[in-house]
Design goal:
Uridine Diphospho-n-acetylenolpyruvylglucosamine Reductase, domain 2, Uridine Diphospho-n-acetylenolpyruvylglucosamine Reductase, domain 3, 4 domains, 16 helices, 8-stranded antiparallel beta sheet, Alpha-Beta Plaits, binds flavin-adenine dinucleotide
């Protein structure tokens, strides 16, 4: 289809693009997975009515529509293929309201996550979801993937922060789902259904999200270990001691080395693995001491910091883990989650898989959630080249191991295009069919981000 076929749509829009370079880059997101073919047009929506008009046009002409926020998805979920309309929502980026007494914010989907958090803090509140990509991802994208993050150990994932959504459905109509009140259980929980649906059920155009009071205190524990497994055991010991840090991250030696090389730090010198735990609230320092005591028998070194600068330096180092590994070459980013009690076991298994298939695998984890990121380095493989068989086999072995241990294929990144071959295996035939039925009900012509999530 040529661009002129879109005149009926483009004549109603403020901004759109068919620049070949931009269309080519929309074939991919941060996963590096490239969709087949080239999308037709990028709609840069500036209003809800433009979103509605775009979806209605796509429905009428049976054209695929791929919604994008920051395009930081790590699964191909935001990648657009042949003839698709790319619906870019990054210009819908207003924080419409912060209701301090209600502790909620009303936002457009293109608001950058860190900007919402910053604005909330001016009123003594904060936005809890904080994926490593906070500075470049959008709230709409976080809702699309049900993003987790570093504070998830205590504050949960994006779904826990979503109260009410305005959603443009597959026919272009607009509905409001959920409740803007702190509680509300009338009807099925459709707001939760849209969270994590990867743009396959509707387009979120407004969200009412929960904010929380900024905790009075913050303390950071950092500890070194002789192995990543020992760090994983320590994470489990923290839970066993009845403690719930805000953040509980572990990073293996090769990842620490990559961070040091990329950013000039000296984390690797302290040990084979690093654990970072943060506690918050009035009892933050007390709880940090309890965390340190719980892990001391397993650690080679434990330090507690109550100054915010040390804490934010360590958190920043953790946020740099993925970009640091990506500097070494193309990567396959995995995202399994297992019951917290199986954390050391899955990490041991991943290390075995690395050896068995002859592929370097870096490991860091949101240990408080049992959410492990094995990052497979594809040495010498350029963007767009097929993933080598041994790397694919290693990824398959990681998925199988996660399911075997009672876990899941994805703790927070989603299924996207990359893990679709496995979703049926996790869900089972009946539940998989049930989910396909929901998709069919909400998107009868299959125009919303086809080929993703299910
Ligand atoms: C360096 C780095 C670190 C990361 N760290 C984390 C992490 O710690 N935790 C984590 O969970 N993820 C992480 N991610 C993955 C990614 O940032 C998140 O999935 C994020 O939520 C995506 O937001 P986005 O705005 O970029 O969405 P996009 O990539 O643009 O879209 C993601 C999905 O949501 C859909 N979508 C986007 N906007 C809407 C909307 N308004 N309505 C309906 N559907 C929509 C898209 O169609 C797509 O399926 C990381 C990524 C990078 C690059």
């Amino acid at each position: 289809m040529s661009v002129t076929d879109f005149t009926a749509l483009t004549s109603t829009l403020t901004s759109w693009s068919d620049s070949p370079a931009r269309l080519a880059s929309a074939r991919s997101d941060r996963s590096g997975w490239v969709a087949e073919g080239t999308p037709a047009i990028i709609v840069e929506a500036t209003s809800v009515s433009e979103v509605q008009a775009t979806v209605a046009f796509a429905a009428k002409h049976r054209i695929a529509i791929v919604t994008r926020g920051g395009a930081t998805a790590l699964t191909g979920a935001a990648s657009a293929g042949e003839r698709a309309i790319v619906l870019d929502l990054s210009r819908l980026d207003r924080i419409l309201e912060i209701r301090v007494d209600d502790q909620v914010a009303v936002v457009e989907p293109g608001v950058i996550t860190a900007d919402l958090d910053r604005a909330a803090r001016e009123s003594g509140l904060f936005f809890a979801p904080d994926p490593g990509s906070v500075a470049i991802s959008t709230v709409g994208g976080n809702i699309g993937t049900n993003a987790g993050g570093l504070r998830g150990a205590k504050y949960g994932v994006t779904r826990d922060a979503v109260l009410e959504l305005d959603v443009v459905l597959a026919d272009g109509s607009l509905v409001t789902v959920g409740h803007s009140t702190a509680k509300g259980v009338s009807g099925y929980d459709l707001a939760s259904l849209f969270v994590g649906s990867e743009g396959t059920l509707g387009v979120v155009v407004r969200a009412v999200v929960r904010l929380l009071p900024v905790p009075a205190g913050l303390a950071t524990v950092s500890a070194s270990f002789p192995s990543i497994e020992a760090a994983a055991e320590a994470a489990t010991a923290i839970g066993r001691a009845g403690l719930r840090p805000t953040m509980l991250e572990i990073i293996d030696g090769p990842t620490l080395k990559a961070i040091d090389e990329a950013f000039g730090s000296s984390l690797r010198g302290h040990g084979e693995a690093l654990l970072i735990a943060q506690t918050d609230g009035l009892g933050a320092a007390l709880e940090a001491t309890a965390v340190a005591n719980a892990i001391a028998p397993l650690a080679t070194n434990v330090e507690i910091a109550t100054d915010p600068a040390t804490g934010s330096d360590l958190v920043e180092a953790r946020r740099r883990a993925l970009p640091a590994i990506e500097r070494l070459g193309r990567v396959l980013i995995e995202d399994i989650a297992v019951p917290r009690s199986r954390l050391a076991e899955i990490i041991r298994t991943v290390q075995g898989i690395s050896g068995d298939f002859g592929v370097p695998i870096f490991v860091f984890a949101h240990a408080g959630d049992g959410n492990v990121h094995p990052i497979i380095l594809l040495e010498g493989v350029e963007a767009g080249e097929p993933i080598p068989a041994n790397a694919r086999a290693a990824a398959d072995a990681i998925f199988a191991a996660a399911l075997e241990l009672g876990g899941t294929l994805t703790g927070e990144h989603g299924i996207g295009a990359l893990k679709r071959d496995w979703i049926g295996r996790e869900l089972g035939e009946k539940v998989h069919d049930l989910q396909k039925g929901i998709k069919l009900l909400l998107d009868p012509h299959g125009i919303l981000n086809p080929g993703k999530a299910l």
